[in-house]
Amino acid sequence: MIKIIVNGCKGRMGRAICDCAKTNDKLEVIGEVDIGDDIQPLIREADVVIDFSHHEATADIAGRCSDNNTALVIGTTGHNEDEAAAIRSFAESVPMVWTSNFSTGVNTLFWLTRKAAAVLDDEFDIEIVEMHHRLKKDAPSGTALSLARIASEARTLDLDNAARHGRKGMTGERTREEIGVHSIRGGDVVGDHTVIFAANGERIELTHKASSRNTFANGALRAAEWVANRKPGIYTMLDVLDLR
Ligand code: NAD
Predict the structure, then answer these.
(1) 58 lines ligand 1 (CB under 6 A)
(2) Which of 8, 167, 197, 225 is an S-S bond match for 53, by CB 3.0 to 4.6 Å?
């Protein structure tokens, strides 16, 4: 039985993970932790920590996993460069699955986006649109950024220069070196992502719509099971699903 701790247990995702774990006979939740709780007494007993909390919390959790030989599943998004570098610094001692989206469908969308961006030349403009519920705190979504990164790699563009986060005013004509990223917020939308490839005379749109958080929760639990006995390093859901 793999023993897990859920960090951010009172949140939307944390609750979904704890619920889904009840029907998984390979995993046992031995700790439910949220802001203000002390994870330290529990972490020694755990095989894996699953973190769906806040971007400021993840590096500290990664450090504690390093001290206690515990694997880590990171679902939290919105880390800044410093936070991401601090998390990466523990990859030599912690096996971690770090991914912006744990759904099988979205990871298939990642794969399809890479293929489509490679097949379609730069006659096809790439724009990414995401929609989430009104309570989401970061924008664009981590998944939209992953899609933008995949598209920029396929086009050999530097994403920092290529990304256009929304447009307003006299922006000038669209260049071929741009990747548009647009965030919509409203209602209770769990997570929609569309990658548009638009050329003269034709357009392809690849869309994924999540309608239940259990999709992400079960993916995170599958990742926990997979990572428990891996060597240290940073893995993604593409490794878990063998989609490399
Ligand atoms: P939420 O706001 O509902 O829940 C976050 C929880 O974390 C809250 O209970 C909050 O009290 C807790 N928290 C905040 N700071 C903390 C700290 N320092 N230590 C411990 N707990 C802390 O948010 P959510 O919708 O559950 O999403 C959580 C995160 O997961 C977000 O970053 C979101 O973007 C991400 N997310 C990722 C995926 C994925 O598949 N990777 C899917 C959905 C959401």
Answers:
(1) no
(2) 8
- Domain match, 135 and 225 both: no
Q: Domain of 154?
A: 104-210
> CB of 88 closer than 6 A to ligand 1?
no
Q: Is 52 in the pocket of ligand 1 (CB under 6 A)?
A: yes
Distance (Å, rounded) from C-alpha 134 to C-alpha 132?
A: 7
Atom of ligand 1 nearest to the CA of 56: 18
- Ligand 1 centroid to 121 CA: how many Å? 38
Claim to verify: residue 221 and residue 192 sit in the same structural domain = no
- Assess whether 113 and 190 both reside in one domain: yes
Nearest to 195 by CA among 143, 132, 122, 119: 143
Model-wide pTM > 0.85:
yes
CA angle 236, 219, 73 (to 5 degrees): 50
Whether residue 173 has pLDDT greater than 80: yes
- Which residues are the active-site residues? 132, 136
Number of domains in the chain: 2
Average pLDDT score over the chain: 96
